[in-house]
From TrEMBL:
InterPro entries on file: P-loop_NTPase, Sulfotransfer_4
Pfam families recorded: Sulfotransfer_4 (PF17784)
Record protein name field: Uncharacterized protein
PANTHER family, alphabetized: P-LOOP CONTAINING NUCLEOSIDE TRIPHOSPHATE HYDROLASE PROTEIN, P-LOOP CONTAINING NUCLEOTIDE TRIPHOSPHATE HYDROLASE
Organism: Apophysomyces ossiformis
Domain of life of the source: Eukaryota
Amino acid sequence: MQHYPEAKVVLTTRDPEQCIPENPPPDHNHPHWNRILKLAEIVIMEKDLKMKEGARHDIIKRFQEQENRVKDTIPPGKLLIYHVSEGWERLCKFVDVVVPFTPFRHDNTTKDFFPVMQSLYDALPRIEPAN
């Protein structure tokens, strides 16, 4: 906010109890899954993301801590805490744009997560760097 005092911040959020699975996918120990989890670690985790006892609790705790850091850092008038289930209206009002006619997509659910990860897994051998 120091460099861009007029900026607005949209914190997209969801209920971590609902979106973080109790158990990993069956193939979570496959080397390609480990690469995907490594990417998740780079983005949101500090340590290896393995679903061992207590891991889900730790992930939820870190998720909530990160949200709280954002809430504590951004002034209330500059921050929209946004659930994608809300659709366009509140988001568009916050950024001062007209609500589009295009329906808001609601297809980023927990049940969609593993099929998306599977498609990434399937693509990994084709996108490995050349030696």
